[in-house]
């Protein structure tokens, strides 16, 4: 049968060249030779032809699968790239927006087909919101807690915690303070409500400054006050400073009479809280009259505000000239940030070493420092992030430039440079 093989090979070559690609080998034999071969030879040649065709089909199928796999992979890569570009544009927009609110909106990504709102617990569906002209459907998302929520909750009166900014979930009770501010259960469990409760924390912050060789030799009165008293005191200041829309602390330099909260009292079933105030005349014995802090904030947030205001006091007592808001508020935010990190890093040798390795930003812990609970530590990390993400020029930009200077040159050298030039070292 060797000659049959040769014939088959010859014919295969010939039918490729002569346009017989769609003819079977059997038909080809009949076409060329008028059917003169016996049935056995024809059947053998047909079997060879069918076998070869099967191999070609399998190879074609493999190639087709590989092509489809490559196309699918490319589509997935394109979707990921598109999602990343969309997210980058939204994040860039939110960072450039001069807003103190920490939440931002971003578009649905391809992988996020089902998202539950952290507020109403309803599904945020693409079909429930009218997309923008570019097809992007947005939802709110907190940059620290990663809470996703319907954009409508930003204007429909849904409560946010005044301290950690978390949206009030459906079915969770938030504490409503006298002045209308809301506190989540976590922040409420650490809130400071009067001056007596705040005194130990005030001493902690003073020790923190002493550990930085920045001890305040002058005794400074402390007052925990209501919002109205704080706003009135701020209006009475001749040496005004740049303040956020929500004033939470004030370094007072003028003599004023302020109603100080000295006690809180529960009435009846303890559901009603009454704040007992006492009028106090704050007399100016030096450049600083008193430090006032808004009541009802959790301990770590209150401490960071104390550190900020105490830095204002230190600058005045050390004879620093009047500084631009971004310089003074920026360096005060640096100290608030440092104090928070010193609290968060208690009990973490690795974190303490990292914080103090380059510029001694992290002072030694006092014996009174104790490890925080996981809840309070998470809140502290949130307050750190708030300082870092602040979008305002004085507090946000000022902090970032100041923190970079302190990281590069150290705190003492940065402060010396500010005193000489009224600017941060570059």
Question: Overview of this structure, please?
Answer:
The chain has a three-stranded antiparallel β-sheet with strand order 1-4-5. Strands 9-13-10 form a three-stranded mixed β-sheet. About 50% of the residues lie in helices and about 15% in strands. It is of the alpha+beta class and about 425 residues long. The N terminus is likely disordered. The protein starts with a helix and ends in a 5-residue tail after the last helix. It folds into three domains: about 70 residues; about 80 residues; about 230 residues. The radius of gyration is 36 Å and the shape is elongated. A hairpin with a 6-residue loop joins strand 2 and strand 3. The chain has twelve helices and 14 strands.
Instruction: Report strand %.
Output: 5-15%
Strand line-up in the sheet with most strands: 1-4-5
Distance between the termini: 92 Å
Low-confidence stretches: 1-23, 93-104, 349-360
Sheet of most strands = 3 strands, antiparallel
Structure summary, number of beta strands: 14
Radius of gyration: 36 Å
GO molecular function: ubiquitin binding
InterPro entries: DA1-like, DA1-like_dom
Organism: Cucumis melo (Muskmelon)
Protein name: Protein DA1-like domain-containing protein
What key attributes describe this structure?
disordered N terminus, elongated, 426 residues, 3-stranded antiparallel sheet, 3 domains, alpha+beta
Task: Put the structure in a nutshell.
With 426 residues, the chain is of the alpha+beta class. It has twelve helices and 14 strands.
